[in-house]
Amino acid sequence: MRDQGLVERVQARHPGAFEEFYYAYVDRVHRHLYSIVGPDSDLDDLVQQTFVHVHLRIHTFRGESSVTTWLHRVTVNVALDHLRRRRRWFRLDSVRDQLPSPAEPEQPDENADRSHKLRVLHQVLDKLKPKKRLVFVLYEIEGHSLEEIAELVDSSVNTVAARLRAARLEVRQAMERRLKLAPLRAVGS
Amino acid sequence: MSDARCQQVREGLHAYRAGEGTPLWRQAIEVHLDACAACHSERWLQSQLEDAAKQGPPPLSDVRKRVIFEGVLEQAEAAGGVVERVRRLRWPQLAVPALATAAAAALVLWLQPVPPSPEVSGWMQAGMGVEAFAPDAAAVQYQATAERPVLVLDRQAVLVRFTRPEGVQPLEVRTPHATVFVRGTVFFVDVRDDATVVGVQHGLVEVVDRSGHRTLVATRQQASTSTSGFAREQPSSPHFVMLDALFPEEQPPALDEPVPLPPEPAPAPRPRPQRPRAAPPDPDAIAAVVARHTHLIRECYESALKKDSSLAGTVEVEVVYGADGSVRDVRMLGPGIGVDEVHQCMLRRISAWRFPTSDAGHVTVRIPFVLTLAPSRNDK
Fold it and tell me: B304-326: per-residue pLDDT in tens?
């Protein structure tokens, strides 16, 4: 109800209403974007784009869904656009080894191992096609149901489930390769 | 372990990790996980996903939130302004596909073209690869030699796309405060009372002020002349939005998506000809180019170390190079190490590098340079 009232005030261009809306949701948008696109130097820009879109399109919100769902859909679209553009980039990670002796601070083994694995996971996710990655992240990391995801990405549940299956398989295989895990296919020994 | 049992366990892992199921069922899962390495690794993968879910981004500080908020207002306002300005243009002179800014395009669709106001001058197709738009045409003069296009601007702004033809010298834009040298890019020059502001939508330009100070302005950067050289500014000018609308950036072909096949000329039973897929860029070849030039980057860094021996950090750079390997664009990503002199030195040098030729069209590569003082051998 509070959200609905706030949205109505934003739509009516009440002074300070958009600012209140922004501060009420900026952390949530930031977190969503991060979970979808991973660590990215453009994260602040994406937050900005999301709220620019909100500013320009808030009049189209008619209250048929909750404002958080509507905002999440906007966020997902901004993230998906970004992932599509980012797939055209090509990141060179190996350069740090070529440069003047990076003296990295020593980390406790467990933390180093954990952050290494998370880095690998993000690298593996970077290899997925944007739509597959989106479905995978929304389901596996954000914990949405298939039905919710279908609504968010404007697809059928079957399509979402197929993308999720394909994404899970790709992630598993890539993680096996990268981290030398026991192959998941070799069951029955 | 049977495949069927493994399959059952894997399907149940999602519920298991959510704490669901009876104690007996959970115990059965645990017994299986202890005995089956493959399912154990599946469980491990899921725990990584849990970690990823818990691992949020570093929180936004109040200052960053404020900066983003101000950016939102400026960008939203500018998008509204662009709509109004585009509406006032003479439509036959405006390439319709150029209206690419989504917000502007969506709104422009239902706006009716109107006759131009007297103060709106619109487009200048100057020749020699120069396409320019100036709100006040009287402020811009086109003066060209046989080989070099020159724009002279004494007030207001000009928005330009310059595509340098073979044999033509770089474009010069002269203002009361500076001269801008352009090899091929999309940019604006805005002359104010006491300064000239230059912003680049795409590409790289060099600016020299009346005192001989030089700087490079790269994609999505903005700089203005000042009494002591150049001041870097947030790329917040509304002219950026206008540039987006007038000169939308052409997207390079995606490297990892199939190249569309040409239509079949006639129905025939022969096999459909397969167009070869563009080979992806070779990371090793790119790394080799970078490795060959690291001494140049090191020089930029070491010259700044003389002033501040504690200087260290990562400078991430985005380079776009063409099929021939020449650099088309280079820009900083993020704040770098906070020393503009080092950043400019790096950008200038990288812009002269030659990357491997590529049949995939434009290649964009992001290069993080970790600049850290090497520990001396005596320390070991």
Answer: 887 887 788 888 888 888 888 88
Q: Is B361 on the interface with A (CB under 8 A)?
A: no
Assign B295 a pLDDT band (cuts: 50, 70, 90): confident
Report the interhelical angle of A67-86 vs A2-11 (nearest 10°).
70
The answer for A 107-166 residues in CB contact with B (under 8 A) is: 114, 117-118, 121-122, 140-143
Q: What are phi and psi for residue B143, nearest 5 degrees?
A: -125, 120
Evaluated on CA atoms B190, B191, B193, B197, the torsion sign reads positive
Contact A153, A135 (CB under 8 A): yes
Cβ pair B78, B85 in contact under 8 A: no
Helix axes of B37-54 and A157-179: crossing angle, nearest 10 degrees: 110
CA distances from A123 to A93, A129, A188 (A): 11, 12, 30
C-alpha B35/C-alpha B154 separation (Å) is 80
Compute the radius of gyration of chain B from its Cα atoms: 27
Best of A46, A99, A132, A168 to disrupt the B interface by mutation (most B CBs within 10 Å)?
A99
pTM for this prediction: 0.45
Q: Are A98 and B293 contacting, i.e. CB atoms less than 8 angstroms apart?
A: no
ipTM passes above 0.85: no
Q: What is the pLDDT of residues B75-89, one digit of tens each?
A: 877 765 554 444 444
